[in-house]
Design goal:
Strand content: under 5%
Shape: globular
Order of helices and strands: HHHHHHHH
Length: 225
């Protein structure tokens, strides 16, 4: 309980700062919006594979928006020496990681709430009965992506070329998550059943649990490097 209490306070601090500056949400939202709007002009609406293309496009936008936002979140902590204050405080290192995961989930979630309906309209998608499956897929995949990206961003933040290094660290690790997310999203967009998407959802659940446990176990050592 003590760990979660400190994590909520760290997340609340990040959210208060973002409400004042709006730096992270603005950058994430504009970047993801640009991808979807530009793609919508060349999107093959009459193609029989349009749902597969849309699913890949959607997760490409989500991934790069998350990389941009989470990378900026940790960079701001480093630039203002806030991370040093957290390290020297008696707060458990696990709380710092969970707090960052919670705030990053909020940032990415807000961007997705704005982007997902817009993507459905611009790309002329009709999820219909697959909407609930789509939302579950987005939630599980986002948790996995945020968990691993927060950890790897803390590793990259002390390097001089952190903006270039972070995608190189995250993308290879996140490939299984992206494949599962794209496949489950495709099933949702084509009106498929939960049973058809269950293997992909189980993979996303396992990845989210694995990345979160890995972050909790190793974040202490990452901060001390």
């Amino acid at each position: 309980m003590r760990t979660l209490r400190h994590a909520r306070r760290i997340a609340a601090k990040d959210l208060r700062i973002e409400l004042r500056t709006r730096d992270i949400l603005t950058a994430m939202g504009l970047f993801a919006l640009l991808i979807v709007v530009v793609a919508s002009f060349s999107f093959p609406t009459a193609s029989e594979h349009r749902e597969e293309i849309a699913a890949g496009l959607l997760w490409m936008a989500f991934l790069f928006a998350a990389l941009l936002g989470i990378g900026r979140s940790l960079a701001m902590e480093h630039e203002h020496a806030c991370i040093d204050a957290l390290i020297t405080s008696p707060v458990p290192r696990e709380s710092i990681y969970l707090g960052k995961v919670l705030s990053n989930l909020a940032f990415v979630g807000v961007a997705q709430l704005l982007l997902l309906p817009l993507s459905i309209v611009l790309l002329q998608l009709q999820p219909g009965r697959g909407l609930a499956l789509l939302l579950v897929t987005v939630a599980l995949a986002t948790l996995a992506l945020v968990g691993v990206t927060t950890l790897l961003s803390a590793m990259a933040v002390n390097t001089r070329t952190r903006e270039a290094i972070l995608p190189l660290l995250v993308i290879p690790v996140a490939i299984p998550v992206l494949i599962a997310a794209v496949q489950a999203t495709r099933i949702a967009l084509t009106g498929g059943t939960l049973g058809a998407a269950t293997p992909w959802l189980l993979l996303l659940t396992a990845a989210a649990a694995l990345f979160l446990l890995l972050g909790l176990a190793t974040f202490r050592h990452v901060l001390e490097e």
